[in-house]
Amino acid sequence: MLQPRSPSQEPGRTGRSPAQPTAPVLALVAVLLLLVAGCTAPTPTAGSYRDAAEQTVTDLLSAVGTGVLLVEIHRGDRAFSPYAETTAEDAEDAARSIADTFGTRQPPTAGSDALRAELSPLCDTAVNALADLRIALKRDDSAAVEAAGRTLRAVSSGLSDLEESLS
Amino acid sequence: MRWLAAFTLGLLTAIGGFLDIGDLVANSVVGSRFGMTLAWVVPVGVVGLMVFTEMSARVVTATGRGTFDLVRERLGARVGLANLLASYLITLLTLSAQMGGIALALELASGIHYLLWVPVVGFLVWIVLWRLPFAYMEKTYGLLGLALVVFGVALWRMGPDLGALFTEAVSFSPPPNEGAAVWWYYAITLFGAAMTPYTVLFFSSGGVEEKWTSEDLATARLNVFFGLPLGGLLSLAIMGCAAVLLMPAGVQVSDLGQVALPVVSTLGRLGLIVVILGFFAATFGAALESGLAAGYGVAQYFGWHWGKTLPPASAPYFHLVIMVSLLSGTLFVLTGVDPITVTEYSLVFSAAALPLTYLPILVVANDRGYLGDQVNSRFTNILASVYLVLLCVVSVAAIPLMLYTKAGQ
Amino acid sequence: MSDEADGTIFRIGFTVLDRQVVDRGGENLGKVDDVEFTWREGEAPAMTALIIDAASLGGRIAGRFGRFWETVLERMRPPEEAPTRIPLTDVEEFAPTTVLSTDAPPGMRPLEAWMARHLIGRIPGGRR
């Protein structure tokens, strides 16, 4: 099918015509660089370790808070078990993932070691308490649920104290 | 009287159909982290949605064609293609998020892991799009979506200090423990949730499917001007519930189960049943709408036969696009990526593409060749232009803010 | 040259291209993707037909992407399918919708018809 060449197809196929878009390519590279910069682990300084600890505390408080609310809901027999169990599992999974992410971080300085010594046990207790809650809910064991609730409240106040000392 | 019944039905459908997984997640997350300080975003989003939805309705009743059908004609093949690509990809992401949301709602109801529900969900959405008549489908999920009024009931039952909530809402600054960048990032997310593109995409073609004429314009306008704000109120109720119960408890919403906590705490088992029903209706309805929107966009760009009201064999490409979209969405969710994360990303990307989806509506609605003297009034144009500027600002800021705050940390 | 009898001037960019083509019965055919001109000796080129063809759309989406589009769609085109050509004499009006005075030309988009018969039509409920 013979088609007249349109002007935009004219310039020699070998060279780059002025209309060749290098600007979008550059923009794409810039975005990719930004993405990569966002994804790589930040340089480990005491400040960034502290920030990570703060974030960990906030996220753990959220998971623990969910657990506490679930204990109250169970006490009042206000929910069906699929809902309570699913929400408890989600909280436990979230806490576990948060604790793991923090635990794999390398503390850069001695000061960070102290922070880690304070936060790590809290992480473990939180995760275990949420696991206990999940197990107790599945068994519909009210005594165990209450016990998990007590532990969760204790962890929560420990985390809140730490949060205050960090901010 | 029959008019009143039709109007009430349409109104209720608009309210019930307003919310989707994006609104559920965004309002709840924002309420739990920022209290009511971002409440102002909801009215801003709702007004924008009202302006552009009314324009779409007017275009449909005046021309008998969907707004996006006219985009390629009015703006050319290239711009039309850019608009199509952006709209389609985002609608696909939104569709995946909604299907993930349906699976999560079913998990909350049954205890069965959500991934096992995903193929079932994909099939269910497809079968409804394949068989259920259009109007019947819309009314069903619209009315069932009203179950989410339970958030308003729960909020009222919690007896919150309304004065304190109001003060927070007008403070226009983030709470002390959150930074400005994250605050603005979530403002954009919330805005994207209120003005999701697929809503207008679906609405403008849905009007053609239901064969609206100029007599239907008044009803459509009433639904838009009353239904959407009431839907916005529902959004604020969800935000309020999270602000009153979850924020003081230190809970920051990251799962669908947490969104329901205020309702369950206050209203117990009955509340739980109603809220899960509401979740299901809202996400299922939104999945249907976004699936159809995907089909509409592609079919209308190429001028193929399209429409749910046609027998599928008369619109094969249209249904093929829907099937492929549903399949892609299902497979994407099956990769195990967290549906809540997908939802949040779909909102940010929607926000980033808002000008591309809404500018064509403004252009078409001003075209005398299509609408004759039903073109936009000066007031509408001024308002719409202001919104377009806002949309451009939001669009430019969305992705950089997302990268800067690492998606909201 | 067949258009308006009273010598109206119009431009294809706005009035013809990308318009929805609808046949006598109101059925969608497609969008006008391209336009055919015939150049006879001694005369100016005259518009003779409308082309509905997704592949030729590529020529109008400029640049590399457009060429890529054109090549891919040309390759994907089944052998019995040719770009739909609508002679201008069948056109009743151009804008806002291009309406034809005839029915859709037969054999348009055989792939779609095949799909309707063998794929979509085979799924239960497909024909209703």
Written description of the protein model:
The complex is a heterotrimer of chains A (167), B (409) and C (128). Chain A is flat and about 65 Å long. Chain A has helices spanning 23-39, 46-75, 81-103, 110-139, 142-166. In chain A, α2 (46-75) packs parallel to α4 and α3 (81-103) packs antiparallel against α4. Chain A has one domain. The longest helix of chain A is centred in the middle third of the chain and has 30 residues, at 46-75. Chain A is built from five helices and no strands. By secondary structure, chain B is mainly α. Chain B has one domain (2-404): Hydantoin permease. Chain B has 17 helices and no strands. Chain C has four helices and seven strands; from the N terminus they run αββββααβββα. With 128 residues, chain C is α+β, with helices and mostly antiparallel strands. Chain C has one domain: SH3 type barrels, CATH 2.30.30.240. The termini of chain C are far apart. Chain C has a four-stranded mixed sheet with strand order 2-1-7-6, with no helix packed on it. The model of chain C has no long low-confidence stretch (mean pLDDT 79). Helices cover 26% and strands 23% of the residues of chain C. Chains in contact: A-B, A-C, B-C. At the A-B interface, α1, α2 and α3 of A face α5, α13 and α17 of B. Chain A: Residues 1-11 have a biased composition (Polar residues). Chain A: Residues 1-21 are annotated as: Disordered. Chain B: This is Divalent metal cation transporter. Chain B: It is a multi-pass membrane protein. Chain B: Keywords: Membrane, Transmembrane, Transmembrane helix.
